[in-house]
Write a structure and sequence with these properties.
The complex is a heterodimer. By secondary structure, chain A is mainly beta. Chain A is built from no helices and eleven strands. Chain A is globular, with a radius of gyration of 13 Å. Chain B is mainly beta. Classes of the chains: A mainly beta, B mainly beta.
Chain lengths: ~110, ~110
Amino acid sequence: DGGITQSPKYLFRKEGQNVTLSCEQNLNHDAMYWYRQDPGQGLRLIYYSQIVNDFQKGDIAEGYSVSREKKESFPLTVTSAQKNPTAFYLCASSLTGVQEKLFFGSGTQLSVL
Amino acid sequence: AQSVTQLDSQVPVFEEAPVELRCNYSSSVSVYLFWYVQYPNQGLQLLLKYLSGSTLVKGINGFEAEFNKSQTSFHLRKPSVHISDTAEYFCAVTLEYGNKLVFGAGTILRVKS
């Protein structure tokens, strides 16, 4: 079955540590997105990529980094510069852009130890 | 820049009653509008979308929404809800040629028996 796989489901970060969230899709979609979800705030865009080897900052990119070396993969690194990383992180993809249906992964809950 | 306001953070309703979840957006140019649903600890699923054409849009699970350009609204409705409709619902907007999808803060629908 085609879809988006996020791993791990739960992740814990120590102070000063970088952690990487995985996002893989087998839908052959060009566009991929990372959103952060905090209770009562909806989803906020961290980074997006419309094509391999290219990505743009979203609204809250500070303290995060991404790469897009392969079409099917869009990992997100939460760096030590992100002082409030506890949140639910959602990865999504669409065929070419946001005007189409976004397919979401099941999310990663990141917490600080 | 576009923005989305979901007017109710929580909506309690009895099973088999009708429900309306309100969404207003702000934009000076043409937009595309979406409603997504999120069940606990899962990613989001598309309920319906408005791109152009008829202002009444029908989606999955018996939901529908009406685009009102003069009131800049895109309210979601269902004539008779079920317990299984308990979830969080997100309204989202993008510009016609935009590359970002902006989400509202979400409305939690609680269906009671």
